[in-house]
Amino acid sequence: MSKLFRFSMNISSPYQSRQNDYPDGAKNLSNFSSKIELEKTDNISTEQLYEAVYKNAFHPMFIENTDGRIVKFNEKFSELFGFSQKEAERLTAKIFFETDENSFLFFTNQKVENGFAKAEITAIKKSGEKFPCRISSVIYQTDNGVVRTINTLVNISTNISARWSFAG
C-alpha cells in the first residue's frame, strides 16, 4: 500500500527582507506568502496511485496490458493521435510507434528487464503522420494481480523544429 499525501504550500517571498532593494513592482511581491503542510490520508493501493497520476496528467498517457492491447488512454492522447477510445480498444500500442527502430527495440527490452524505461522514439498518428516523441513507461500490478504498463508521451517535434529554426 502507498500513502497519499495532500499538500498545501506556504512560501515566503525572498523580497520581504530586502524590500527597499527592489523596484516598486517587486515590493508588492512581499505580500505573497504560503506555507507547506503535509497531511496523510488513508492508505491507497498502487492501482489507485497510478490512476491518480493518469487522471491528472498534462501529457498524453495510455495504459496497456502485457499483450500490448490498449486498456485506456487520456484525452491528451486522443488529441495527439486522433483515435477515439472505442477505436483504440481494438488496437495494440505497437500501431502507434515505429517498432523496427533500434530505439524502440531498446526501450522495449529495458522495460521488460527493469520494469520501467524511457526513450526517444518515432510515433505515428492516425493520419499516418510521424513525429518524434519521448516515452516513459512503468510496469505495475493492479489490485487484482493484473500486470499493466502506464506510459507517458511528450511530443518533441516542436522542440526539434525550434532548434532547427534557431540554428538555421
Set down the secondary structure blueprint:
Elements: E1 2-8, H1 24-27, E2 37-44, H2 46-55, E3 61-65, E4 70-73, H3 75-81, H4 85-88, H5 102-114, E5 116-124, E6 130-141, E7 147-155, H6 157-167
Antiparallel strand pairs: 1-2, 3-4, 3-7, 5-6, 6-7
Characterization of the model:
Helices cover 29% and strands 32% of the residues. The protein has 168 residues and is α+β, with helices and mostly antiparallel strands. The chain has a five-stranded antiparallel β-sheet with strand order 4-3-7-6-5. A hairpin with a 4-residue loop joins strand 3 (61-65) and strand 4 (70-73). The protein starts with a strand and ends with a helix.
Instruction: Please provide the count of β strands.
Output: 7
Topology order in helix (H) and strand (E) letters? EHEHEEHHHEEEH
Radius of gyration: 21 Å
| Helix content estimate | 25-40%
Distance between the termini: 52 Å
User: Treating each run of at least 4 consecutive H or I residues as one helix, how many helices?
Assistant: 6
Give the overall shape: globular
Unreliable residue runs: 1-38
Strand content: 25-35%
- Major sheet: size, sense and barrel closure? 5 strands, antiparallel
Numbering strands along the chain, what is their spatial order in the largest sheet?
A: 4-3-7-6-5
Query: Structural class of the helix and strand makeup?
Result: alpha+beta
Average pLDDT works out at 77
